[in-house]
Amino acid sequence: MKAQQLKIALRNCGVIDPENIQDYIAREGYLALGKCLAGGSREAVVETVKKSGLRGRGGGGFSTGMKWEFAAKPQSDRKFVVCNADEGDPGAFMDRAVLEGDPHSVLEAMAICGYAIGAEDGYIYIRAEYPLAIKRLKTAIAQAEEAGLLGSNIMNTGFNFKIYLKYGAGAFVCGEETALIKSMEGHRGEPVSKPPFPATKGYRGKPTNVNNVETFANVAAIINKGADWFASIGTEKSKGTKVFALAGKVKNVGLVEVPMGTTLRELIYDIGGGILDDKEFQAVQTGGPSGGCLTVKHLDTPIDYESLVASGSMMGSGGMIVMDEDDCMVAVAQFYLEFTVEESCGKCVPCREGNKALYNILHKITHGSGTMADIDRLKELSVVIKSTSLCGLGQTSPNPVLSTINNFYDDYVQHVVDKKCRAKRCRALLEYLVIEENCIGCGACKRACPADAILGEPKKKHFIDQEKCIKCGACYQKCKFNAIAID
Amino acid sequence: MTCSINQQIIKEKIVEICSEFKNDPDDLIAILHKAQGHFGFLPSEVQQAVAEQLRIPVSKVFGVVTFYSYFTMEPKGKYPISICMGTACYVKGAEKVLGDFETKLKIKNGQTTPDGKFSLNTLRCIGACGLAPVVMIGEKVYGGVKPEDAGKIISEYKD
Q1: A171/B88 CB distance under 8 A
Q2: Nearest residue of A to residue B72 by CA position?
Q3: For FRET with A90, which of A289, A400, A466, B37 sits at 20 to 30 Å CA-CA?
Q4: Is A141 or A288 the better-scoring residue by pLDDT?
Q5: Which pTM value belongs to this model?
């Protein structure tokens, strides 16, 4: 049987008009909030979320119920609920879809959380790059306030909860909750060491609970249908469903929501429809810059928090990029490290300097001057960065390097020893050659060459001076007789 | 003296923006968003004015402006071109798309054409991975862009 999608977080996306609160209410919207306010004690709400087994969908995978419990405990005049909508992971767009398609589900869950932990203010920290999501959230907040479902004295129960928006400004590290809080306070988004955890000392020094968009999107369904229902879906330790942004070299791209425990093969072949142009599957990257590249041998791995970590990647927020035989895994590792180097906040040395060193070594390898010792150095340095960095960014940033070395060791060796790139992506390692029997000496390549690297008389065989060749590929594109080969 | 007039205009606008946020330094990022939305970029004069108005050091404002990639201290072109370099776009050939825009516009990534019409930069994922590779000009999104499309897309922006 083919794997099926099961929609909980995305239950309303594409089904309702996100700008009309009545549509949401017609699908049991704000019913869960009503239930909590009318009957459930604060403790009971926390207990339900805890029992459901819901874990953070932003990447960490920490128990949501326990997080709520920690934030509920301290006595304080003010507490805050924060929704992390700073989806900075390149290749991921789950949160954007929920915010644009079903903004009320997030608002309702934030209010439920506010009730459970004793907070009256909620903030959504959202990327400024998502203008439509911002617009829909603003509309949704205004409609909910007008309907008495947010604001003061909600449903005449005396419970007050207001939601405000805070804008991010493009910093990946702000997905880390302490950095996010710093950014909300108008500072550079630099993480601080924990403890104290935000649950005791967060935004403005007050107890704060931070959850991701997708986490919140599950909450109302859990309250409505019960913790046991939610816990019956998924695997032993990972309950419910997970939304993935399937992209890259796969036939069906887009968002998919599947029960935890679905295998990568089911996701990529049954739902994704297989590899684009029927090419060979090479790798799937999960977890973004913090995750790793998994290969054919992992295709039957069930997707849950523990299995993905055990195979050298991680759940992350849900980006899932499929790569085919034309992708160079060393270059992919370099791509992620380039990202990390740019996004490291620079506060702690292992992350700031270590990732730069990793990048430089990878650059050396993809440009043909790497040695076998460099591969060992990459491994050693990765381990040090992972164990000594301050926050989640540095603790996971070497994963793309380690996972590609573990799973595609031969590719590294080929770059270093043979100075070749199998996927022909590393330009410095390519060699352009004239296939003599095809060359008619038309001179098109010679005229196209910007480096004057092609020699030969008209109507005679041409050849390429490798010393001068800058590997731009102009000759390859110009030749109409298939007389240029890339080696 | 145009310079002092400009400074006066900047000052007035910043006072207006900051007062919307009750001069609360907590809202520094929101204030900078508004200021950049108005002026197009955040030159040192703007940062100075914000710092004075919020009564915080300029170094703090500068630190925030340079930390976040959304803020820029350089003026952008009339039509800012952004090439998405998210992973999905990258594996579908965004590098080549960038290369072709660079060749066609005769500028490098991060630069603006001498006539101020186009500026070129890269960004990390606009969440349109299904359309990869993606190019954004202003608010308009182009999906499934091939390197050879650069000329055609640029020619849509004649004036």
Answers
A1: no
A2: A169
A3: B37
A4: A141
A5: 0.91
Count of structural domains, chain A: 4
Chosen domain end from A174, A204, A231: A231
Per-residue pLDDT at B87: 86
- pLDDT tens sequence across B85-103: 888 898 888 999 999 999 9
The residue among B124, B126, B134 with the most chain A CBs within 10 A of its CB, best to mutate, is B124
Residues A340 and A382 in one domain: yes
B30 contacts in A (CB within 8 Å)? Answer: 166-167
Residue A182 to residue A173: CA distance in whole angstroms? 11
Q: Among A388, A418, A448, identify where a domain stops.
A: A418
- Identity at A486, one-letter amino acid code: I
Crossing angle of helices A213-225/A42-52, nearest 10°? Answer: 110
Q: Which one of A91, A130, A186 has the shortest CB-CB distance to B129?
A: A91
* Nearest CB to B87; choose among A90, A168, A184: A90
C-alpha span between B91 and B85 (Å, rounded): 9
ipTM score for this prediction: 0.87
Pairing mode, strands A80-85 and A208-212: parallel
Q: Which CATH class is domain B79-155?
A: alpha beta
Kindly tell me if the per-residue pLDDT of A1 is higher than 80.
Answer: no
Q: Does residue A68 fall inside a structural domain? A: yes
Break chain B into its structural domains and give their ranges.
2-67, 79-155
Does residue A285 belong to the interface with chain B, where contact is any CB pair within 8 Å?
yes
Q: Let me know if residue A345 belongs to a domain.
A: yes
A204: left (phi over 0), alpha (psi -120 to 50) or beta: left
Q: What is the pLDDT of residue A472?
A: 84
Count residue pairs from A and B with Cβ separation < 8 A.
107
Question: How far is residue B11's CA from residue B13's CA, in Å, rounded to a whole number?
Answer: 6
